[in-house]
Fold each of these.
Amino acid sequence: MRCPKCQSESSRVVDSRQADNMIRRRRECESCGNRFTTFERIEEMPLLVIKRDDTREVFNRDKIITGVVRSARKRPVSSEAIEKLVDRVEQRVRQLEKNEVRTEVIGEFVMEELMNLDDITYVRFASVYRSFKDVSE
């Protein structure tokens, strides 16, 4: 593992722990002594998302994070809470055991999770996702 400080490829694992569905490792660079953390996850089968225009692209959790972060702007929602929300959404999508999932399904999962997290963030996300024209919708 390459050290983020000195770019040396010589490091040793100081501590290793299970964290959710991944392994967290504390490493120490043998060249400069810098300590850093790495995470290992199981490599999942590629999941394709069917967009509204029927094009397909590889599932990208960062897109969900970006949308939720925008909706949660100036709200008391931590980045950790957003990460956990996206973890739950991704887990639900993978539990469908399909290679392809429509964006509408993913969007519904995100909104269900946001309902339990923060009402304002939920309304903001839903208004963009469902393209609300006015308050009555």
Amino acid sequence: MEVEVFLGRVLHVIDPDNFWMHIGTNDHFAEFLQFEVNLEDFCRLSGNYIDDINEIYAGQFVLVDCTDNGGTWKRGQVSRVDSIQKCADVVYIDYGSTELVEESRLCANVPDEYLQFPFQALCCKLAGIQPIARSWTSRAVKMFQDMTVNQVFHTILLPSGPGWFKVVLYRQDGDERSIAHEMLAQELALVS
């Protein structure tokens, strides 16, 4: 049985048991890049911001203006609305991260074509290791973040539960050691 190897980019890390990735092929990544360009064009031309934070609700899909920080528009889902502070907690469905967003950056009018494109952030767990204590040490989390965030890996998916993926990550430079093995070598994890 041949193992299928994908490309995977780590986007957002909480710890090695809880992080988000884009997983796919070069064509898949190119398709998402084009989707983001189209989304950016739509948002730039529409300028359709909300006028009142009470126009949105928890669970609603929104578009968020992230251009002030050199970013682009992003798709998100509202997890909580704070009417007093005039902001909303938003989960970025293509990146896995969250942000408290002011109402002046929110667009609630999301055309169906931008919701039909599959959400890109996949919740993952690094296969083969476990914390050396009850939970991951801050040193282990920092090392994992430094080794992985915004890096592209050869990625193998292993059987896992619904809503998340167990992954094995190998660098693209030909090094045969997985990220899990690097964590073990640094004495930051135990074999699971």
Amino acid sequence: MNGQRGNIKEFSVRYKKEGWKPYYIKAAFEDGYEHLEKFAESTYGVAFLYLKRPSCNVCPIKRSKIHSDITIGDYHLAAGGQFRPYNPDGVSSAFVHTEKGGYLVSIADNFLIEDIPVRNALYSEAYHRAIPARRNRDEFGKALYTQGLDAACSLKSIKAIERELSRKAWIRKQGAKVKKMILGNK
């Protein structure tokens, strides 16, 4: 990649500047300049949420319908260090469903594996249900195709949806804090 600042020597859309979350988009240039932007506040982050693969929004493989040997996902309760185990670069939770899955975990190298309460691992709603597509997904996609990314992210309907989702996220975050206080640090 070549631009006004020269070549990009490092690029990440999940850069961990302040620990696990929030993550950033980072572009490090050869001249020493670094561009940092919170992923969730970037146009790329908005597009990522609107345009993820449609089949993911209706995925039937949840909870009792899992056919894998192991299910791995982010251990959201560990974010911020309130729950153990914690690593500022991220922590995953894993469910072993089969004997083969148990064997694969037993031979894993360079992993720190600790037991955690099942209820803590089940905290992520993505384990229970598919996350529905964003409203106005089609409108966003059409604007992206015809007018570009900035125009799609600037649509009034998209901005209104993002404000509503931001308010809901704040309420969920407050609820999660209360839930953590009730569950205690386990």
